C-alpha cells in the first residue's frame, strides 16, 4: 500500500517531459501540476486526523486505497491539462490520508522499536521512488501513451486494497490511541513538537520538492544525456532505500534532535556542492550522497515525533504536523518552475526588487537551475543555523 500511494506522488516527476510535449505547456505549468499532487497530499491531513478520533486507523488506510484506485482511473482518462491537474490533486489526496493514518498505526504495532519499524515502512515507500522512472520509461516504450502509467497504477491499487482488507480482518490490531478524541486539544498540548517538525521538514521539503521534480531537466543543463539524467533521478531515490533502514535504526539509538540537525546541515552542503559541480562521475557521486542524506531525514523525524507524542495525542498531533509541513513544502516545484521559466510573476518580482542589492540583479527570462538552488540552499542554511543556535541554548523540545 505504501509503495503505491508514494508512487502516485512521485510518478509525475519522470512524466514531466512527456506532459510538456503532449500538452504543449511550459515548465511553470508542469511545476504547478506537480505542486498540486503535494497540495492534494496536504489537504486531507487535518480532516483525516479528526476522522481518526472516531474511526480505526486500518479502516482509514483501506479508504485511501479506494481513493487511489478511483483517482488513477480519472487521471488516465484525462484529455486536457486541467483534467491532469485535477487528477494530480486527487492522487495526492490518497497519499495524504494514508500517511496520517498508517504512520501512527505502524508505530503502535511495534512500540519497542519505532525507528526500525518506520525505517522498514519508509523503505517500502522509497522503493516506489526508485521504480518510478524505470516504470514510466517501460510504460512509454511498450505502449507510447502516457496515460497507460495511470491505468497500471489503478489496477495495482485495486488489488492491493483488496489484499489489505483481508489481511486486516485476520490481524489483532493495537488499541493505542483510544483516548485521542480531541484534535484541537492535542495540537495545543503538543504545539512545540509540532512546530519543530513543520519547520524541519516543511522548509527542507520545499527545497527537496523543487530539486527532485526538476532533477532530470536540471542534469540536462549540466550537459548530461537525457537517458543518463533520467537514470540519475532513479539513483537519487535508490540511495534512499538503505537510508530509510539505517536511519531508522540510528534514530532509536542517537539523541533525536542533534541527529536531525546533522542531517539538515549535510543536505544544505550537498545542494550547494551540486550547483558548482560538473562532470558525470562527480555528479553521480553527489547525487547518491544527496539522496541518502535527504531520505535519512524522514524516518528520523517520524521516529522523533511518533515516539515522543503520547498515546492520547499521537494521531491528532501527527495529523496537524503532517498537514503543516506539507503545506509549506508543496509549492517548491511551482516556485522553481516559475523562477526557471520567467513569466509574469517572475517579471513582477524582478521589477519590484530592482533596487534591492543582489536580489535586484535578477536576469530577464528566468534564472538558471544553479542560481535557483543556490538561493534555496542558502535560505535553508539560515533556518538550520537558527535551529542549531536554539538547540545549543536548550530551547528545542527533546
UniProtKB/TrEMBL annotation:
GO-annotated molecular function: transmembrane transporter activity
Cellular component terms (Gene Ontology): plasma membrane
Protein origin, superkingdom: Archaea
Residue ranges of domain Major facilitator superfamily (MFS) profile in the record: 1-394
Keyword hit for Lipid metabolism: no
Principal place of residence: membrane
Transmembrane segments: 20-39, 84-106, 118-140, 146-166, 191-212, 232-251, 263-295, 315-336, 348-365, 371-390
UniProt keywords, alphabetically: Cell membrane, Membrane, Transmembrane, Transmembrane helix
Keyword Cell inner membrane: no
InterPro entries: MFS, MFS_dom, MFS_Efflux_Transporters, MFS_trans_sf
Subcellular location: Cell membrane
Membrane topology note: Multi-pass membrane protein
PANTHER family named in the record: CHLORAMPHENICOL EFFLUX PUMP RV0191, PURINE EFFLUX PUMP PBUE
UniProt name for this protein: MFS transporter
Upper taxonomic lineage: Archaea, Methanobacteriati, Methanobacteriota, Stenosarchaea group, Halobacteria
